[in-house]
Amino acid sequence: MAKDYSGGSPKHHHLEQKRKRLPWILGVSGLCVLFYVLGAWQNTTSTISDNSELSNKAGCDVTNQAATKSQSSVLPSTTPSTASLDFEAHHQIGINDTSSSQKIPACEMSYSEYTPCQHAPRSRKFEREMLKYRERHCPTKEELLLCLIPPPPKYKNPFKWPQSRDYAWFDNIPHKELSIEKAVQNWVQVEGDRLRFPGGGTMFPRGADAYIDDINELIPLTKGKIRTAIDTGCGVASWGAYLLKRDILTMSFAPRDTHEAQVQFALERGVPAMIGIMATQRLPYPARAFDMAHCSRCLIPWNQYDGMYLIEVDRVLRPGGYWILSGPPIRWKKYWRGWERTQEDLKQEQDSIEDVVKRLCWKKVTEKGDLAIYQKPLNHIECVKNRKIYKTPHICKADAADNAWYTNMEKCITPLPEVSSSDEVAGGAVEKWPERAFALPPRISSGSIPGITAEKFREDNELWKDRVSHYKKIMSPLAQGRYRNIMDMNAYLGGFAAAVMKYPVWVMNVVPSNSNHDTLGVIYERGFIGTYQDWCEAFSTYPRTYDLIHAAGVFSIYQDRCDITYILLEMDRILRPEGSVIFRDTVEVLVKIQSITEGMRWKSQIMDHESGPFNPEKILVAVKTYWTGQA
C-alpha angle 334/336/341, rounded to 5°? Predict the structure, then answer.
């Protein structure tokens, strides 16, 4: 049947032109495909000479080179799949930064233990009431240091875990104060060129292990129900250190105060810790984060300020979570003389703590020996009814339980999610550890985080499983126990931390305070720990406290907010000599980062995404070279 042409029959020469045009179109298309393949091939086969130049380039003049290991074992080897990619001539952008090509000098040795937001000369300018001066007070833009924090002259790589739990090099933290001041309590001892941590504490002279066994007789610590803990006023974090073998991960914190370097000791041991204090601002953790909280003679005035500090513990405790108290005023009838306080004073303190506990709707589980243990309710059904009896503290009305970055504490009870029965866990129950790590977190299953679904959670887990497998290929130390303290600067759902569970590491999961989604609560529900942070400011830790830093998409978030040079300098401050950094970002951002870090005595290499060269995201692996300050 003939085709119907509505515009009339076609002319013969029109049909002839169409037949002649077909080979021309096919030819042009073939050339396009050929040049596309050729261009892709050229981008994925960089010359070996570029790589050899990188690996042979001198990073800096270093002191005591014999004490170091070669960075060649950390930077990936040159293979076709991991070849250095050179984008320098083709991608130039003006990200907010200082002069990127400058060589950044070392700071004076007096800054060797500099903590920018807890710097004593600056802190002393603030009020002492409620210890406000010991909270975070970060430098202004004009006060920022454009120099590298120097390690001590005889700095050595720390002991590997688990040996590091008990030993550290004295030259890395040259402080004897605690070994003298706390000699009887066995916090730390100096033995020749090293520090030994016997595991003692103010309220556990028999050692943290025996003390934890005493707790285990009262509440179950080894059945997987308790996974996350917080230690307020942690000392050298021996309680958290010995909980690790029971699969309990503890966020230990203490202020930078007269007990010099206690948090630094903890991190040098390979134990999670932060500089922090209970003063006027909320702790930088979400609501319903911890299964257990602990205070062993932590000197926090729990009964003062209308019970505000216990109210804050209530906020961060999970429903059904425990609070453990030892030290004053517990067992005051035995210890009152040694504490140099009157019996009346100690009795009044304990009575007022018990009153606050009742008002919070907690129950007292037990008081035995030196320990008192309290438990938060599973939900607020009874607590709402009790407001007829206890008018204060009232239950907060604002729905901002997770807001914890520079947020003032409140003297009202943080409301729990509603439930339909008295035995239901508010906000949803979590699985026992280790199933908890990959079970769907209640905050996701309830739909409380917009845009994050069960499917996205599963996809994120698979994504990070593949990525960490790739990291293992390009960074052999990940599988060799070289790293212990790891920081994820943009943790999202905690997929990276979950993927490295099988290694002898722990991860500080950081959720930027300006993130589109507040996911830190999800990370805690998975059984991991972390904190909020604004990366335009310094982190609350000592220098040289992390072995590996993971930064996925961080600089794309912050490049328009603050000078990325100072973010990189902060990373250098908290990274140990010969520590590593993994950046994931666009080519333009990574080229700029690499340019800046060349002036920071780092060695680095840009590589393709694990999925291949056509992914616009690339990976930059960097190593901080070994160098020390002058005595």
Answer: 170
Query: CA-CA distance, 3 to 9, in Å (whole number)?
Result: 10
Residues 6+ apart with CB under 8 A from 141: none
CA distances from residue 47 to 86, 123, 387 in whole angstroms, order as listed? 10, 53, 73
What pLDDT, on the 0 to 100 scale, is given for residue 83? 46
Concatenating the DSSP letter of every residue in 580-604 gives EEEEEEEHHHHHHHHHHHGGGTEEE
Sign of CA dihedral 109, 112, 115, 118: negative
- Put the strands of the sheet holding 546-552 in their side by side order: 529-533, 506-512, 485-488, 546-552, 575-586, 617-624, 602-607
Instruction: Give the pLDDT of residue 187.
Output: 78
For 4: left if phi > 0, alpha if psi spans -120 to 50, otherwise beta; the answer is beta
Alpha carbon distances (Å) from 550 to 160, 492, 497: 20, 12, 10
d(CA 477, CA 31): 45
Q: What is the DSSP letter of 342?
A: -
Length of the chain, please?
631
pLDDT score of 391: 82
Phi, psi of 315 (to 5 degrees): -60, -45
Q: What is the DSSP string of 282-318?
A: --SS-TT-EEEEEEES----TTSGGGHHHHHHHHHEE
Q: How far apart, in whole angstroms, are the C-alpha atoms of residue 289 and residue 108?
A: 40
The burial of 220, by beta-carbon neighbours within 10 Å (0-12 exposed, 13-18 middle, 19 or more buried), is given as exposed
- Residues paired with residue 466 on neighbouring β-strands, in sequence order: none
Amino acid at 26: L
Measured CA to CA, the distance from residue 605 to residue 85 in angstroms comes to 8
CA distance 485 to 500: 12
Across residues 389-416, what is the average pLDDT?
A: 92
**Geometric angle at alpha carbon 539, from 606 and 145, rounded to 5°:** 80
Structure tokens at 429: 């129950």
> Which pLDDT score is estimated for 70?
42
Query: Using an 8 Å Cβ cutoff, are 582 and 590 in contact?
Result: no
In sequence order, which ranges of 360-431 are alpha helices (DSSP H)? 381-386
Entry pTM: 0.86
Peptide bond into 162 cis (omega under 30): yes
